[in-house]
Amino acid sequence: MIVVKDLHRHFGGFRAVDGTSLEIATGSITGLVGPNGAGKSTLFNVIAGVLPPTSGTVMMDGEDITGLPPHELFHKGLLRTFQIAHEFSSMTVRENLMMVPSGQSGETLWNTWFHRARIAQEERDLLKKADEVLEFLTIDHLKDERAGNLSGGQKKLLELGRTMMVDAKIVFLDEVGAGVNRTLLYTIGDAIQRLNRERGYTFCMIEHDMEFIGRLCDPVIVMAEGKVLAKGTIDEIKANEEVIEAYLGTGLKNKESA
């Protein structure tokens, strides 16, 4: 689905992404790991149109999407979440979901005057869909809660719910487990697997929790110093000497050989 070729993103003399090439297969849950400063989030930002590349190409389903802005990629089904959730804190959980689809009739003044019936029908449809999403994510009991009152894990579930309000093809998840307790982390993991299995979502996720990565992801891609260092199953990654040295540390190697 996604093919990245010789991608660079430089900030002055600093090469955050330095000739990265990788592929994300349709229907996969691909993990992206690496030490802090490896270029993972910058890579996500370039793919998702948040940052323009210095050079290189990004292809999606054979189409060159290099440098397209986020709103155009959104309409193509490419979505990105962030390590810190971006919710509308004063709105309810349900209202946050209903805000996602673009091109709603109620967005124009003309329609609010002359097409109220159409707007009312759209709102009923959105309400139904939002409730279905919340039930899928097992947070329907929070539908009328202000989003700003949610815990960190619940906000991550809400972000995942936003991707379900449109026809997402691939979702880039940036540290979905950051600041989330283990119980909610498993709930998020189950939702990701169900979306992948039942609705055909493709995922690529940055995560530091190797247990979580191992449970969900195949393949796993390791980045270091702006480049791809290794790719394989979680067991292959853990056994890779370069990865152990660059990211996982000698402690893991000694522990597993003990």
UniProtKB/TrEMBL annotation:
Gene3D superfamilies: P-loop containing nucleotide triphosphate hydrolases
Cellular component per GO, a single term: plasma membrane
Segments forming domain ABC transporter: 2-250
Protein name per UniProt: ABC transporter ATP-binding protein
Any Pfam family the entry gives: ABC_tran
Keywords of this entry: ATP-binding, Nucleotide-binding, Transport
Lineage: Bacteria, Pseudomonadati, Pseudomonadota, Alphaproteobacteria, Rhodobacterales
MF terms in GO: ATP binding; ATP hydrolysis activity
